[in-house]
Fold this protein.
Amino acid sequence: MSITKFPASSSPASTGAPIAKVTMPALAEMKRSAKPISSLTAYDYPTSRLADEAGIDLILVGDSLAMVVLGHENTLAVTVDEMLHHTRAVRRAVRRALLVADMPFGSYHGTVAEGLSNAIRFIKEAGAEAVKVEGPRIDLVRALTESEIPVVAHLGLTPQSLHRMGGYRVQARTAETVLQLKSDAQALADAGAGAIVLEGVPREVAAAITAELPIPTIGIGAGPDCDGQILVFHDLVNLTFAPAPKFVRQYADAAAQIRTAIEHYREDVEHRVFPSDEESYHLPESAQRALESRESSNRKLGTLRKA
Ligand code: KIV
């Protein structure tokens, strides 16, 4: 069975309706027909399954994994093997959405050949349908495209450039940097990128690039005029233990709900009200009677031996 095949018995999405699989060409079609592309990051089976069943179009196993799941200070430490491990978990859950894997820092910053062989691992070993790379890596994007690997590019505030940028700062705020960003975006599209994430750029800049580019733009902190939007799952549900950036809208407070649930559980254990009798397994009556009779015979035998 291929890694992307699912058992016939497991029905797709919550509706049980047939899946219209989201592919890279489908994203292009969504741009042409002005249908907004919904995207979300996910890193494990349950959340990616929920995202897929909720109808999210593109699921990204982001290298934000390093921060929101693994507890690192930034994204730089996460490895290819860690990203592969989580991409495989997401692959097991996702049926409809386009599954994109983020190439981590260091996995494509050397030669194009290294970038290509690491990208192949995401497709071959983890079942990703596209990879995402940060920055204007035109030669790499061309080589990946020529090797049948769809690419999502990523420009603007690229977290892997943290040290060069001197912090997480909104990018393209001067005429010169806006022109550079536009020309990078065009070059990436020309090299074959199938979509481009625009992160942390002024709304006006993202709108202009979205209007000019033939490929979909997916914004995060880039205003509402992109062809789609992406958020980090843990931002969306408040699981980051840090103040949310301005561009995040929190749709749930999972931290509060999970904290309360765990506190209630601890209290119930401490007060011996968990588990209840209904939450316990019981010995069948026949076994109980047999046990009692065996124990009583053993006691009698013991008494006789002592006498
Ligand atoms: O790693 C990530 O989560 C990302 C998104 C913010 C686009 O790159």
Observations:
- Residues 41, 60, 62-64, 102, 197, 199, 220, 230, 232 surround 3-methyl-2-oxobutanoic acid (CB under 6 Å).
- The two ends are 70 Å apart (CA to CA).
- The first strand starts at residue 37 and ends at 41.
